[in-house]
Every structure is written in C-alpha cells, then in structure tokens.
Amino acid sequence: MRPSGRANDQLRQIILETGFSKHAEGSCLAKFGDTHVLCTATVESTSPRWLKGTGLGWVTAEYGMLPRATNTRTDREAAKGRQSGRTQEIQRLIGRSLRAVVDRKAMGEIQIRLDCDVLQADGGTRTAGITGSWVALHLAFQHLVKIGQLTAIPLTDHVAAISCGLHEERAVLDLDYVEDSAAQADANFVLTGRGGIVEIQATAEERPFEETQFNELLRLARKGIGELVEQQKRAIGG
Fold first, then answer.
1. Annotated binding residue at 26?
2. Is 151 annotated as a binding residue?
3. Residue in 176, 223, 221 with CA at minimum distance from that of residue 3
4. Residue 207 among known ligand-binding residues
5. What is the pLDDT of residues 74-127, one digit of tens each?
6. Does 96 carry a binding-site annotation?
C-alpha cells in the first residue's frame, strides 16, 4: 500500500480551475493533491528583440515558490538577489514544454509569458506547472481569437507532465513528497496528447535501475498523461 492509500497507477485528485486570476489573459490553478500551482498567461504586444522581423512569436515561463509553500519558510529569491539553479531549470523546462506544441509562426510577433507560482508544495510542482500552464496558454490564445488578433488558436497539441518513480521497489504514478523523498528512482515525463515525447528527466537515487523498470514508468506516465489531457479538455470546455 502506498502511503497515500492510492493504487500504483492512480493519480492524486486533479483539479484545473480556470479564471482564477481576474486580470490575466489566461489563468489556471492546478491542484495535484496538496500541490497547488497558480499559472497565469500574460500577452505582450511584441516578441523579444532578437525575434524582430522573423514573423515568429515566443512563449516563455517563470517559476517561483511562495515562502510558506513548504513546511518551513523559504526566503524569497528576490530578497537574495538571484534565482536558484533549481528555479532556472524548472522555468526553462516549462517554457520548452509549451513551445513544443505552439505554432510560433501562426501566433505572429507577440510574446506570451507564463508565470507559475507555487502556493503549496507536496511534490510534483513542475508537472503541475506544465499541465496548468497549457490551460492558461490556451485561454490566452482563445482571448486573442475573441478580440480578433488571431484567426485560430495556434496550438498543435496538448502537453502535460507527470512524475513516476520506484517506491519500495514498485513503479508508482504521481509521487507526492513522502514518496518522492524516499524513492529509489524518480522521473518526470512531459508528453503530448498524441503521445509524443517532449522531455524525460529520470534519476536513480540509490542504485541504477533496469530498462524494464523504466518501461513500466513510461507505461504509467502515458496512462497518467492521458487522464491529465482529459482534464485539460474539460477545463477549456472542449
């Protein structure tokens, strides 16, 4: 039995609450169990300077964690004057994941920034951030279509992310903090709605794991991503 009582292939309760932010062009509060990440999309009228004249748009992301998102207070990175390596790595991952399913030529020379703010952390903040950011991005594009700035939503597919790992020698889906902190191996899978692989981050924590075990993690991830995509569809009314 998992510490949470879930089956090995069972997600935590997933809630994708849209319209959470009054002012953002798109917003989604992504809840993966007790991990809550607020994802907001901001439309900017011009693309970055280095893309001027290319006809291409840009999608980027920033990630941050509130001081009491965890069981002890963490200083704000702004107070330290620099971002941690972990923060930079996660926000780059979120940006890459979203750009993988955006037709940047169809969006034109605009930029959309995704802000992922962790309100409460219990494992899987990056996976919740990616999954919720896709919803926020879709809503931002939907807004641009509504006001006539775009003729169609320039998304080629869904993208979502989920963690899997080996806990007490068993492959399990969607690790919470208790499992993640004790896992023999853990992995984050970023997959598209059609099953394409965007990125996989997998690490052995104690000893190397076998290819057969990795294949089982991938199988679980595909199942979980399928369920997350269905949640995304419901969130955007599709």
1. no
2. no
3. 176
4. no
5. 988 888 888 889 899 999 999 999 999 999 999 999 999 999 999 999 999 999
6. no
